[in-house]
Amino acid sequence: MRGNNEFINQLERGNEALFKASEMQVEAFFKSNPSTEALVEHFSGRCANEYLNMVEVAKNLLEIAPSGDRKMIKLLARQVQDEAEHFEMVAKVLERLTGKPLDVQALLAAEGKGGGAKGARILESMDKDDRLALHLYQFIAEGRAHRVWQRMAEVCADPMIADTYGKIAQDEKTHREFGRVGLEQLIKTEADQKRASDLADKIRYELYAVSCMNCVEVPEARELCVEAYGAAYLKH
Ligand SMILES: [Fe+2]
Ligand SMILES: [Fe+2]
């Protein structure tokens, strides 16, 4: 069996193709000079996703709190607060784009119907007492969010959006590190490593699908993923 730090480092390296592909996709979307309507649709999804992250991490916090793991209780509570801030920040981006106050109920109702392409749905579908799944989600999805938001901040022409996402990107990096802390606590045996690898494959695959739907198709990005993860990435 590999040492756990080495295993977690290897998991991290395994995320790289997905992260690079997602950066390429978000860059292509913003460089395509999207219409206001396309931007509103894009940020509506992102706004609902921040809301869902807040709610789902809060549920995990309620599940984990009775274990008495004080370190993790504080980290998850901090993440719930951060996601609430992100929800607010993206809501303001939307209000600036539309010139109208955001109707949160309408946003959530619309996203509930057609919002399958959300990273947070992956978290929603996991058992709330499955800590390995939670920390892997943090490690992969939050790590990806950090990279994608950072790239968005670099390529987005609107300075208010760029500034907002530059700030959010820093928090997502912190959340990725919460995932690392959790993985270091939980992965102890070879069986844990195997389960983590299998689950990581699934999470990456679903996040790639999210990225294809939220942004634009970039053939080189798909090629990168096919090369790294296999032929399943040929179609979505
Ligand atoms: Fe967030
Ligand atoms: Fe986050």
Fold and architecture overview:
This protein has 236 residues and is mainly alpha-helical. It has one domain (4-234): Up-down Bundle (Heme Oxygenase, Chain A), CATH 1.20.910. It is 81% helix and 0% strand. It is built from 9 helices and no strands. The protein has helices at 4-31, 36-64, 70-98, 104-114, 119-124, 131-155, 159-186, 190-214, 219-229.
Q: What's the arrangement of secondary structure elements?
A:
Elements: H1 4-31, H2 36-64, H3 70-98, H4 104-114, H5 119-124, H6 131-155, H7 159-186, H8 190-214, H9 219-229
The chain binds fe (ii) ion (2 copies).
Residues 53, 83, 142, 145, 172, 175 line the site of one fe (ii) ion.
H and E string: HHHHHHHHH
The profile of the biggest β sheet is:
none
CA gyration radius, whole angstroms: 17 Å
How many helix segments?
9
Q: What ligand molecules are bound, each kind once?
A: fe (ii) ion
Level-1 CATH class name:
Mainly Alpha
CATH topology: Heme Oxygenase, Chain A
Q: What is the average of the pLDDT values?
A: 92
* Beta-strand share of residues: under 5%
CATH homologous superfamily (4th level) name: Heme oxygenase-like
- Any low-confidence stretches, pLDDT <50, length ≥5? none
Which CATH architecture would you pick? Up-down Bundle
Total DSSP E strands: 0
Structural class determined from secondary elements: mainly alpha
